[in-house]
Design a protein that fits this description.
This protein is an alpha/beta fold. The chain has helices at 5-24, 26-31, 157-167, 199-214, 231-242, 268-272, 276-285, 304-314, 333-351, and strands at residues 41-42, 77-78, 87-92, 98-105, 112-118, 135-139, 174-178, 217-218, 224-229, 249-253, 291-298, 319-326. Strands 1-3-4-5-7-6-9-10-11-12 form a ten-stranded mixed beta sheet, sandwiched between helices. The chain has a two-stranded antiparallel ribbon with strand order 2-8. Helix 3 packs across helix 9 (333-351) and helix 5 packs parallel to helix 7 (276-285).
Length: 361
């Protein structure tokens, strides 16, 4: 079983780089226009609840609040179920879209943690007001606590999606970025380890429920996918294989294949139930449903042999796998985003269902 050292390395390296960027140049960054508005309240979508009208004199009739749009008619389209979360801006992109954070109390896991979200410009386009949007749950490497580094605009994930939409190579994904672990001491393999916080339930149940409460989403798995780097890649792949009824695809970057949290000690059966190799075999033996795994690996990092072996042993039947090698790529988020721009975003966009423009009227 492989140690989690590489997971901690990628988390530390990215975290250190971001600390230098945001700490050492903090005053300069504060002066930049793209930091303006941070901390302000954010509402996503034209279906957001309108503010309550101001009190009016008794004789004056208070106008009714706007009625949210109805679904397009497709049974696969879910309008936001509520309750709406309280979002605060943490970053603004050049195209005017924002990344925002909220605090989520997971109903099923019992865990409370931060979640960052981003919606593309198309989400506010009137022609998509009654359409669902595909969701990409982005998971970080390292311990993934107290922050999710995909929420930092410097890595370029959201920009890559926006540019892909313009180029016709990416769907306009809603990007959801939860914390991966309940603390920074251990990594939990995104799993329900006995006696520990239920991080598997947090990722697979509470985060999707939160997303459905706040955004227009698809009811079927055709609109749901994950992506992750290093430990986040393992969790994303494991979650898709464990819940093929909920998720259809994953972009897994960095070569992590098997669970290796030190907290599994004494819980072999539960660890096996969270092992992608065993989950893939179960899916193959049960003949589906079909899932799609796009591996990414840099040519300047280790781990390719583990991916190739997994493909040879388990990339069959309903388990569809592809491998993208990132030339001169290293074990970090910037290079994994480059791989997504070079083809992995287009790959996953062909697997999932995109928004559909309104043709009514």
């Amino acid at each position: 079983m492989r140690s989690g050292r590489s997971r901690r390395v990628v988390g530390l390296s990215v975290g250190l780089a971001l600390a230098l960027l945001l700490g050492g140049g903090g005053f300069v960054a504060w002066k930049l226009e793209w930091f303006s508005g941070n901390g302000g309240t954010v509402s996503f979508g034209r279906d957001a609840a309108a503010p309550a009208p101001a009190p009016a004199p008794a004789e004056e009739k208070v106008p009714a609040a706007p009625t949210p749009p109805e679904p397009s008619g497709s049974p696969d389209v879910l309008m936001p179920s509520g309750p709406k979360s309280d979002f605060k801006q943490t970053a603004r992109l050049d195209d005017g879209t924002v990344i925002a954070r909220t605090r989520l109390a997971g109903e099923k896991s019992g865990f409370t943690g931060d979640v960052w979200v981003w919606a593309p410009k198309e989400y506010d386009d009137p022609k998509y007001a009654r359409s669902a949007f595909p969701v990409l749950i982005a998971l970080p490497g390292g311990n993934g606590f107290p922050a999710n580094y995909w929420s930092d605009r410097s890595l370029g994930l959201q920009k890559a999606v926006s540019e892909g939409v313009k180029a016709g190579t990416s769907l306009p994904f809603i990007v959801i970025m939860p914390v991966l672990n309940p603390d920074a001491r251990y990594y939990y393999d995104g799993s329900d380890i006995p006696g520990r916080a239920k991080m598997g339930t947090w990722i697979a149940e509470d985060v999707p429920a939160f997303t459905r409460a706040n955004f227009r989403t698809y009811a079927s798995r055709d609109g749901w996918a994950l992506m992750g780097s290093s430990s986040g890649a393992f969790v994303g792949m494991k979650t898709v294989l464990q819940h093929p009824d909920k998720f259809k695809a994953v972009i897994a970057s960095g070569g992590e294949i098997v669970p290796d949290s030190p907290l599994w000690k004494g819980h072999q059966a539960e660890m096996d139930a969270n092992n992608p190799e065993k989950l893939a075999r179960k899916l193959i033996d049960g003949n589906g449903p079909e899932v799609h795994i796009n591996f990414q690996i840099g040519t300047r990092e280790t781990g390719k042999e583990r991916i190739v072996l997994f493909q040879q042993q388990y990339g069959k039947g309903p388990v569809r796998t592809t491998l993208r090698e990132i030339q001169n790529g290293e074990h970090n988020g910037w290079h994994y985003v480059r791989g997504m721009k070079e083809g992995s975003l287009e790959w996953i966009s062909k697997v999932l269902r995109g928004p559909e423009p309104d043709t009514a009227g």
